[in-house]
Specification:
Layout lengths: L3 H5 L3 H23 L7 H22 L3 H5 L14 H5 L24
Length: 114
């Protein structure tokens, strides 16, 4: 397993390869734990943590602005959600369905004559 410093200095392609290796290793560990070939359950936790660290670093790669974007002046971002028109805002809301009323069913008990 690599340390977090080694992972941070890796390229995105290397991280993807390391992620693939870590997932295969996690599969092996899980199988060995289930079949009682492995008794050390902490290996699964460590491998799971390694996978999470690699995924986090991959997300950081995606969030980093490229050099072209960094040189541009920051602009006001538009919200990704479309604003409703006035007619949509003033339109009446459909009524919610009322829950069905359950009728109480009386159980008939028959007494046997002995």
């Amino acid at each position: 397993m690599l340390s977090i410093q080694e992972l941070r200095s890796s390229s995105k392609k290397e991280l993807l390869l390391e992620l693939q290796k870590a997932r295969k290793e996690m599969l092996k560990i899980r199988i060995n734990l289930k079949t009682k070939h492995e008794k050390d359950t902490s290996k699964a936790r460590k491998e799971k943590r390694m996978i999470a660290q690699i995924l986090t670093l991959l997300k950081e790669f995606d969030k980093e602005p490229s050099s072209a974007k960094a040189s541009e002046a920051p602009t006001k971002k538009e919200s990704p959600v479309a604003k409703p028109e006035k007619s949509e805002v003033l339109a009446p809301k459909p009524e919610a369905k009322k829950p069905a009323v359950k009728k109480a069913v009386a159980k008939k008990t028959s007494k046997k004559n002995s």
